[in-house]
Design brief:
Number of strands: 19
Largest sheet: 4 strands, antiparallel
Radius of gyration: 25 Å
Structural class: alpha+beta
Number of helices: 7
Strand content: 25-35%
């Protein structure tokens, strides 16, 4: 409901809204200005509206809107584990305020981080990526997902309690397991993933790396990423690299909502993981899915970032430096001008390679 400009709203004498002093506060006037989800028993009820006009006009909007459901339907996923930080991603059925409570195991008080945009809780996206900062090194933490119901006075709901261990600072040994190219039919993919998660190396791994091509395309990115794949990795921090298949499909842009920029520099103990985006093929006209691809500005952006990353103290001070990319910097078929390999090689050679690498 909304009113130009003053309104009080009551049901059976109970007041749910009163803007008689401060005014409506929203313009234009619409039923979505103020929304309330109210539980009522079957029978007759008295609705009372006390309204006052503004200086220029009078308008009253009153009616039904689509219900809001803050239920968590996917996740959580852990990624970007680095010194003092980790990110948590999850999905709610509708776009609602969401965040993460976290604390060291054994403590009673929660700290909270919200999914925000421009200093406000993000009300626009059902995909939530929340970064937890200020973590102590190599420490066990508990966390829970928090959602607010905007139609019920922003009342809070909580998930089960999960846990993770923060990244170590020292040269503590750790285990990482890498997989890649899990695209294909979902039942077949789930069968392959089941082989991975039941392997002793998976159970012993501190980090799980996926080097891209999670799915055939992103026509339904939630199902493509979760069902039979990421929903099996809960509790394991992930190193997430974007592959060329993540450029395909109408929801490909949502990949960044889950994981942020594909270009990352993470420090886990004495190891620096530098993660690159090797892109996809060259632009092609419609109806090719690559009709939306604009590669040149993106490669320029990544090259500028790459130059800064390899010259950073985080990268240079690491005892081990590992570069992760879906594509290799040289072609499997050396007689073919591979688009991804060529651009990747041109970017990294001035800093790492010198001459073009070759393979016998």
């Amino acid at each position: 409901m909304g009113c130009d400009w003053y309104l009080a709203f009551r049901i059976d004498g109970k007041e749910y809204l009163n803007t008689l002093v401060r005014g409506n506060g929203f313009y234009p006037i619409a039923t979505s200005n103020y929304v309330f989800e109210i539980e009522l028993k079957a029978g007759k009820h008295e609705i009372e509206l006390e309204a006052g006009s503004g200086n220029l006009s009078f308008m009253l909007a009153f009616g039904n809107v689509v219900p809001c459901d803050p239920t968590i339907i996917r996740g959580p996923l852990l990624s970007e584990a680095s010194h003092g930080t980790i990110s948590v991603s999850f999905v709610t059925r509708n776009s609602v305020p969401a965040g993460v409570d976290y604390r060291k195991r054994g403590e009673s008080e929660w700290k909270r981080a919200w999914h925000t945009i421009g200093g406000q809780k993000n009300l626009l996206e059902p995909i939530h990526r929340v970064k937890l900062d200020g973590l102590e090194a190599d420490t066990e933490y508990e966390y829970r997902l928090v959602t607010e119901h905007p139609y019920l006075g922003y009342s809070e709901r909580y998930s089960d309690i999960y846990s993770f261990r923060s990244a170590p600072l020292e040269s503590k040994p750790f285990r990482a397991l890498f997989i890649s190219d899990t695209q294909g039919g979902w039942p077949a993919r789930e069968a392959r993933v089941n082989q991975v998660i039941t392997h002793p190396e998976f159970k012993a791994a501190d980090l799980i790396g996926h080097l891209g091509d999670y799915c055939d395309s992103t026509e339904n990115i939630d199902k493509s990423l979760f069902d039979g794949l990421f929903d099996r990795f809960t509790g394991k921090p992930m190193l997430v690299v974007r592959g060329n298949h993540e450029y395909l499909g109408k929801e490909c842009g949502k990949w960044l909502s889950y994981f942020g920029s594909p270009m990352k520099l993470l420090r886990y103990g004495d190891v620096a993981f530098l993660m690159l985006d090797s892109g996809t093929g060259a632009w092609q006209p419609a109806p090719s899915p690559q009709a939306t691809y604009v590669p040149e500005p993106y490669w320029a952006e990544q090259e500028a970032w790459f130059k800064e990353a390899v010259n950073s103290e985080v990268f240079k001070s690491a005892r081990f430096r590992i570069v992760l990319s879906h594509s290799s910097p040289f072609c499997c078929d050396l007689e073919r001008n591979d688009f991804m390999a060529e651009h990747l090689r041109k970017m990294i050679d001035p800093y790492m390679g010198g001459e073009n690498p070759s393979a016998a």
